[in-house]
Design brief:
Rossmann fold; 6-stranded parallel sheet; disordered N terminus
Length: about 400
């Protein structure tokens, strides 16, 4: 590895950042944490940083890392979540002498990450998206066996130099969980792509027999997305219920349950859709509704705002931070409030035009460029005030 004196922040090309991009190798689809890793890296390259990406050997490198220096670590011979975590914990004992000024762990609470639970003798920051895995009932079946690992991972966040959180809500949860030993934590909200222009136009009527105007909601899984409550509210509306399109992957048994609940309603349960199909669904929708009860941020809401859609969302968790003054809010546990929001979001004319303008204004405040600017500021703080 490269040797040399640790740089002072702000000297062009001298701050050596190791950026963890391993999750993108395992989940190449442009969603969730992988989306964050990609877009943030793209914007960080506009700053004075000497970036090396951390990847697993023997796996395809993401396009974003094509022309960047790479630090490869051996991949786990058996690719299961729990063994990946144990493997990563063993590797760090060999690779802990990292010759970088700063390390950014972008997915510290996933089962592929064990490095950030150790003292690396290098300042590091870690991004926390949510603490959902720690909540009762979230992990089901055999996944419940991983709860002690998630608890251990979260507890060891205390070793970080600084923490990044994607919302004030998640920041508060982390501070409450870690208590007085919580490292300094800053909020760096996510940005959103421009979803107003789909890549390839599609005829939705021919593809899925969708009639317009329609209301869109995604994703439908896990169960805390609260789609069943939305369908119950639609039943309450009777003949006033608009066309509702539900999109997103889920276990087949759950999709069949939704279709059964919606069999007397003007509801289409599409199941998995491609990136282009999702963009087209956004582009042609009349409005977007998101009844989720638990979010670390709420990226689907931001995507709908950027597409210029009127948005209705529950008032749970971080969602009011994302929707700002543009969204219509409701109690996700109150079907009557959900039903009222459905009717409100389907209004037309001047009312809709005003909501479209509010959506675009709110979306303009949340950009990946701003996420990168706030992140680099935290890099500066981590380097200048190391907690080693």
């Amino acid at each position: 590895m490269r040797k040399g004196k640790r740089a002072a922040f702000g000297e062009p090309g001298t701050v050596r950042l190791l950026y963890d991009l391993r999750l993108v190798q395992l989940h190449p689809e442009p969603r969730g944490i992988a989306n964050y890793c990609r877009h943030l890296l793209k914007e960080l390259r506009n700053h004075s940083l000497d970036i090396t990406v951390l990847l697993r050997s023997g796996m395809t490198a993401p396009p974003e890392a094509a022309d960047l220096p790479v630090l490869e670590v051996p991949a786990c011979p058996v690719r299961t979540s729990r063994l990946n975590w144990l493997w990563d914990n063993l590797l760090v004992r060999v690779w802990r002498q990292l010759d970088f000024d700063l390390v950014h762990f972008t997915c510290p609470l996933t089962l592929i990450s064990g490095w950030n639970q150790h003292s690396l003798r290098v300042p590091y920051v870690a991004t926390v998206f949510d603490l959902q895995a720690l909540k009762p009932g979230v992990l089901k079946g055999h996944s419940r066996l991983t709860l002690p690992i998630y608890q251990y991972q979260t507890f060891r966040l205390r070793r970080a130099t600084r923490l990044l959180s994607i919302s004030h809500f998640t920041k508060g949860e982390v501070q409450k969980y870690l208590g007085r030993r919580c490292p300094p934590i800053a909020v760096t909200p996510l940005g959103g792509d421009d979803y107003a222009a789909p890549r390839v136009p599609m005829d939705l009527a021919q593809r899925w027999s969708i009639s317009r105007p329609y209301l869109l909601s995604y994703p439908v899984w896990p169960s805390h997305k609260n789609v069943e409550a939305l369908l119950t509210a639609m039943i309450q509306l009777g003949d006033r219920a608009p066309v509702l399109v539900l999109a997103g992957a889920a276990p087949e048994a759950y999709l069949q349950r939704l279709r059964q609940l919606a069999q007397s309603l003007p509801v289409l349960v599409l199941g998995p859709v491609s990136e282009n199909e999702r963009r087209e669904l956004l582009a042609q929708a009349h409005g977007f509704i998101f009844p989720s009860l638990m979010e670390g941020f709420g990226l689907p809401v931001l995507e709908a705002l950027r597409a210029g859609l009127p948005v209705a969302t529950s008032n749970a968790a971080s969602l009011p931070e994302v929707g700002g003054d543009a969204a219509i809010y409701f109690d996700g546990r109150n079907q009557s409030e959900i039903a009222a929001a459905v009717l409100a979001i389907m209004e037309s004319g001047e009312v809709r035009e005003k909501r479209v303008a509010l959506s675009l204004r709110q979306a303009a405040r949340l950009t990946w460029a701003e996420t990168a600017r706030l992140t680099v500021e935290q890099y500066r703080q981590a380097i200048s005030g190391c907690r080693l």
